[in-house]
Amino acid sequence: MAAGVGTDGLQLVRPEQDGGQSMGWAKYLEDIASRHNGTSLVQRQLQKEIGRDALPNRPKAPAKSRLNKQGEQNMSKLKDFTVATARPLPVIVLADVSGSMSANGKIDALNDAIQWMIESFAAEEHSRAEIHVAVIAFGKGGARLHQPLLPAAQIKWERVGAAGNTPMGAAFDLVVKMVEEHAQIPSRAYRPTVVLVSDGQPTDEWREPLQRLLASERASKASRFVLGIGDDADPAMLAEFLADPSARVYSAHEARQIKNFFRWVTMSVTQRTRSVNPNSVVVVDPTALDDYDF
Fold first, then answer.
1. Is the distance from CB of 202 to CB of 210 less than 8 angstroms?
2. VWFA domain location, by residue (predicted)?
């Protein structure tokens, strides 16, 4: 027979062609097969040791997927940074809880309206401002901080009862102290909103405390709202709290009107959080409310 070429490129010579001096034909083929199989075993062992990703025919993971993962991590860090840098926007309610507020469901309507306002603020998500709420109640025993200043989302409203007189002057002094105290309202906070709600005349000295409020470097810059409840409220006296001839004292004679007033305050405050400059005073037209009648 003629000589041939093996699978590894070597010249194959039959035994009879070399005079029987070479290894037998079967032995020769067995040796070639052994060498080929040995090479395959080495390759498989190397593949196992260095991993499949090192194989030349194994495509690498697309770079896009790694970039997407990095992008998600960066967005998460940006979100955390945004939340951490949101500046507080304080809203302080001066709530008359005198004994007369217990009549005609006024105190219940006030509690419901404040709770609704807090829950509405808690639902707001804006990067520039985080709304904080405090409630100063004035009635039996003087003025007291019923709800400490906290982010709205952290507040669980505890309803307040009605009893005693109307120490409004004490409430003015307490709000000035709160606004001027940097531990309560830091310098980085936006200008506060102060809301006064009352159904009658003050029973303590209120003029000097009000003047201290209006002369306060920080409290005087607050955005102010006022609501008189019932026929005994004194619009002229309440107007002095606003200290703005163009501002209006709103009145309520029914429970739904109290809630409408707080809806209006809520809309005005949330508009500030959405504005380019939350320090600007934004007062929503109350007639924009669907059932405006207060």
1. no
2. 90-265
How far is it between the farthest Cα atoms of the chain?
135
Residue 108 neighbours by CB distance under 10 Å: 15
Q: Whose CA is closest to 254, among 45, 77, 121, 106?
A: 106
What is the domain partition of the chain in residue ranges? 4-54, 87-288
Task: Give the tens place of pLDDT for each residue, 142-172.
Answer: 999 999 999 999 999 999 999 999 999 999 9
Question: Going edge to edge, which strands form the sheet with 250-252?
Answer: 142-151, 129-139, 87-96, 193-198, 223-229, 250-252
pTM of full prediction above 0.90: no
Kindly report, residue by residue over 110-121, the tens digit of the pLDDT: 999 999 999 999
DSSP string, the chain: ---EE-TTSPEE--GGGTTT-SPPHHHHHHHHHHHHHHHHHHHHHHHHHH-GGGSTTSPPPPHHHHHHHHHHHHHHHHHHHHHHHPEEEEEEEEEE--GGGGGGGHHHHHHHHHHHHHHHHHT---SSEEEEEEEEEEETTEEEEEEEEEEGGG---------S---HHHHHHHHHHHHH-TTTS-TTSPPPEEEEEESS--SS--HHHHHHHHH-TTGGGSEEEEEEESTT--HHHHHHHHT-TT---EEESSHHHHHHHHHHHHHHHHHHHHSS-TTS-----GGGSTT---
Distance CA 230, CA 252 (A): 6
Q: Using an 8 Å Cβ cutoff, are 178 and 77 in contact?
A: no
87-288: CATH superfamily: von Willebrand factor, type A domain (3.40.50.410)
